[in-house]
Amino acid sequence: MIKILLFAGLAEQAGTQSITVDDEKTTTDRIKAYLKETYQLQGIERAMIAVNEEYKRGESDVMSGDTVAFIPPVSGG
């Protein structure tokens, strides 16, 4: 099982801050596509991705037991 954490506007759009998927192995790109299709998350393409509290760039492998966080850009003043 892989735990997915959503923050700020992404959590609001999905209606939850935490989602689990029952995969043994996948990638951050597949998770992103799943979230975009299932929850119609706008702006997920611009979100920073962290796997087990380590920021990742590009596609990364994700294994069962991992936690993946999607953190959208922050704006404000």
TrEMBL record:
Record's keyword terms, sorted: Nucleotide-binding
Record GO terms (molecular function): nucleotide binding
SUPFAM superfamilies: MoaD/ThiS (SSF54285)
Keyword Nucleotide-binding listed: yes
Cellular component terms (Gene Ontology): molybdopterin adenylyltransferase complex
Pfam families, sorted: ThiS (PF02597)
Highest taxon in the source lineage: Bacteria
Assigned protein family: Belongs to the MoaD family.
Official protein name in the record: Molybdopterin synthase sulfur carrier subunit
Origin species: Bacillus glycinifermentans
